[in-house]
Amino acid sequence: MWCQLRGVTTKTSTKPAEKMSIMLCMAVTAAAIRLPAAMQRLEAVGRPALQKYLDEQRAGAAVQSIEWLDVPAGAAMQHRLWRAIADAEEHGISQVLAVPRIEASAAAALLDLPEDATEGVHLSLLPPDAPVPAVVIYPPAAWRGSERRDGAERRDEAAALERSRAWVQRTLAPGALGFCPYTASASEAGAGLESLGVTAAPIAFGVSSSAQVSALVADFWRMVEGRMLGPGEGECSSILLMAPAWDGRWEEWKACVFPTLEATLVASGLSRTFGIVCFHPCYLTPDAEYLARHRFGHMHSTGRLRRWHNEVDETLSRSLSDDEVHWVGSYQRRSPHATINVLWSRQLEIAETRRDSASLYTRNLRRAVRVGFEQLHGEAQAERGDERGEA
Q1: Interatomic CA distance for residues 5 and 306, integer angstroms
Q2: CA pair distance 72, 103, nearest whole angstrom
Q3: Contact (Cβ atoms closer than 8 angstroms) between residue 243 and residue 216
Q4: What confidence tier does 104 reach under pLDDT thresholds 50, 70, 90?
Q5: What is the 3-state secondary structure of the chain?
Q6: pLDDT 10s digits, 158-182
Q7: Closest C-alpha among 20, 22, 21, 27 to residue 3
Q8: Which residue has the higher pLDDT, 384 or 301?
């Protein structure tokens, strides 16, 4: 069989040395053209072609490494992309990530991010005439060394895990509050839906010490890939990823971290596989105008909760001010540490068919009133070892 590429013709062979000669020949000649899709995935061909292209564009010297990501858009791609962004931010490393298995539109989606998501790291795509689609990552222009804020202040991960498990047991699992009817205990969720094809499974807890968006998002995708997608629904019901370095940064958590997570989830093609919920020690339900633009991960608006309470228990609803309704709604999303909760979308959709949201949130309001706002606030503060904070 004969192989021909842009005027260079050579005969294939079963001998390893001749095969290598053919591959090198193809790589050299392919550098000037866009490689066919099947050939793009061959690193032995694509990498030399890409390096030659970068050298011709006078970009090769500025790039410290080329990484070949022979994976489709998904968790693995997001994990590696954000690890590379974190490396650029923290260590000044410039890289080219070759992504031969995704289309141009999917590659562009990788870069469709909130303005502050990459904290000065520059991302771009190689032009369409590049032999292989690739993302170019450069450190911030004014980079002078790592400015990580979590090194000297690294939190005690064991304490974070202990506090979070105690919070799940106190607020979500069966008890005086029991806000989530599908949380069986501090270690298991997805309960009560067996008749609908959902089996209760362990909750995967994790802690990220990162104070930077890029490294946090890399930790998030590493955990999704290894602790959820890998084991599957039968082995993992959900993830609770704590990020203690963000405990005092609610506005950034709301305005940057969650929009970035949403963008990466869409770009990964997994937005129909996972749902994400926002928790934070200082969580405040945003107003209706904000939620109309950024609903992802947030509690329902106070206005919607009020309408549900009026439908289910008008007497209780009338006894409470809007501020009190807002407080209880916010409290249901307050955790000891800034926390990302990942759930299976399939299970969420099944739960929606079983539960009545108006009844559930009114029941939660009733239970919160019974315990008392002051006691709830005190328990939350004690849980995270802090007697200060706003109610």
Answers
A1: 68
A2: 9
A3: yes
A4: confident
A5: CEEEECCEEEECCCCHHHHHHHHHHHHHHHCCCCCCHHHHCCHHHHHHHHHHHHHHCCCHHHCCEEEECCCCCCHHHHHHHHHHHHHHHHHCCCEEEECCCCCHHHHHHHCCCCCCCCCCCEEEECCCCCCCCEEEEECCCCCCCCCCCCCCCCCCHHHHHHHHHHHHHHHHCCCCCCCCCCECCCCEECCCCHHHCCCCEEEEEEECCCCCHHHHHHHHHHHHHHHHHCCCCCCCCEEEEECHHHCCCHHHHHHHHHHHHHHHHHHHCCCCCEEEEEECCCCCCCCHHHHHHCCCCCCCCHHHHHHHHHHHCHHHHHCCCHHHHHHHHHHCCCCCCCEEEEEEHHHHHHHHHHCCHHHHHHHHHHHHHHHCHHHHHHHHHHHCCCCCCCC
A6: 999 999 999 999 999 999 999 999 9
A7: 22
A8: 301
Average pLDDT of the chain? 86
What pTM did the predictor assign?
A: 0.86
Report the pLDDT value the prediction gives residue 58, as an integer from 0 to 100.
Answer: 73
CA gap 105, 262 in Å, rounded: 18
Contacts of 51 (CB under 8 A, 6+ apart): 60, 66
* Cα dist from 165 to 203, 224, 226, 311, 384, whole Å: 10, 19, 21, 34, 11
Strands 201-207 and 238-242: parallel
pLDDT tens readout for residues 319-367 = 999 999 999 999 999 999 999 999 999 999 999 888 899 999 999 999 9
The Cα 149–Cα 159 span in angstroms is 20
Spatial neighbors of 23 by CB under 8 A, at least 6 apart, are 42, 44, 45
Axis crossing angle, helix 302-312 with helix 357-371, rounded to the nearest 10: 90
Amino acid at 388: R
CB–CB of 207/239 below 8 Å?
no
Q: CA 140 from chain center: how many Å?
A: 23
Residue 355's identity, in one-letter code, is R
Closest CA to 293 of 341, 342, 338, 258: 258
Q: What would the two tokens of residue 176 be?
A: 């005086």
